[in-house]
Amino acid sequence: MDHNALLDVLDRFEMRGVHSGAAGSSWLKASGKIIDSVDPTTGQVLAQIQLAGPEEYEKVVAEAHEAFLEWRMIPAPKRGEIIDEVTQALREHKEDLGLLISLEAGKIRSEGLGEVQEAIDIGAFSVGLSRQLYGLSMHSERPEHRMFEQWHPLGAVGVITSFNFPIAVWAWNAMIAAVAGDSVVWKPSSKTPLCAIATHKVADKVMQKHGWGGLFGLLIGDRHGVGGPMVDDVRLPLISATGSTEMGRSVGVGVAKRFGRSLLELGGNNAVIVDQTADQNLALSGVLFGAVGTAGQRCTSTRRLFLHESIADSFIARLTGAYKSLRIGDPLLDSTLVGPLIDEGSVKDYERAIRLATEQGGEVLVGGKRIDGPGSFVEPALVRVPSDIPITKEETFAPILYVSTFKTLSEAIFRQNDVPQGLSSAIFSDSVRASENFLSAKGSDCGIANVNVGTSGAEIGGAFGGEKETGGGRESGSDSWKIYMRRQTNTVNWSTQMPLAQGVKFDL
Ligand code: NAD
Fold first, then answer.
1. Tally of structural domains, the chain
2. Whole domain around residue 436: which residue ranges?
3. pTM for the whole structure
């Protein structure tokens, strides 16, 4: 497909040529260096972005703080009505935003559209949430006293996002933060700046219409110019950061030093267990999408596969066959299942992992090579490993699946948990006993544990996130909204006496 022909999408978002990477209540003239946005399919430059400099940083964060001071007093359901309009605007731009994700992040068309749908879904969720920011009430031990808690807005939220969900992760944070009464300062990955600019424009148009320009700020910059200052900035009481464990280690420590809150969504190393009772058709499609979908560039991608020894050979034969028939190529063609990696650095990481796996005793069953030609394409690799060799404990952000066998379920669960990361996990089994074991307190230690559903492709309604080096944060559905608010416990005395708690006497 001629990607140049698709670039009129840039005109529709008015972002041809060199575009500023800083916006508060209006677009600012950026003063940082100029970077390229590159199409990973063709290697061609899509557009250029001038990064935010220190002055723009200051202006955008100050405006977000000012906007918060006003926005926090708007009733939450009224905030929800405005977010409803933002959600509607995302619906109207779904096609174009999805196309942009395919062009800039290399996702296949249906996954690009699916990501925008995820942003729409969290918008709809947030609108409902705006009428459900419930606190509890408690019975006071003192007569004619009332105790309750309420949830107040927190402040301007700093949102740092990764390249692989260039729109949805912002929406997960921004939609909920906004109904909670917070403002948002977004630092997207500098690998996907166009997705951020376009999304910001769509949302900001609605906010401007209602006089709330500056509530959503955008600062495109690197970790030194923007990321680091956000981490140190006390005007941002919460930093929600999505990306590698290395990034999270630095952000988590920095934010803790100033007693800020951090919400960390970091790397995963997700495994699937297939036992001897499993429906193998289900398992095959679950494993395939998990391992090669999004070219292995999801935090929830399946990276390790544990097969019961009695079914291993036949399952591997079917999986190998499926890998051989994968259609790799232009993500904008309907027939394509696997698009490119994001850049040359990711191709190098993939090649390194394949080399180490082989040196450590693994056998590449299928794939394992970069594909010559333009773009950052690799063949999804299936690697049979004799045991849990060191490379299987690392997250390589590429389509590599390490396969090994197990004898007992407890062995498989132990090995699944025996990695530093703790994001997503799955068992394929028709045995109630095996599934319940897997979900029990002695089962999977991950934030997400599924039965007969693969590791990737979460719905927005659940709390999303993981344990250990995945960072411990929870985003999106369930009660994840609580981190965007501050809890206040209130006691009201409507008696004429002043009894103290615990029966303490303090009378003159
Ligand atoms: P990355 O860590 O390279 O970058 C993520 C973001 O953090 C970027 O905006 C980057 O500029 C910024 N950043 C990096 N170092 C920083 C620092 N020291 N201070 C402040 N900001 C900093 O990650 P990536 O390559 O964009 O994304 C892939 C990684 O993200 C994978 O490890 C993947 O598992 C993870 N991820 C996790 C989740 C999740 O929800 N758990 C979701 C998506 C991606």
1. 2
2. 270-464
3. 0.98
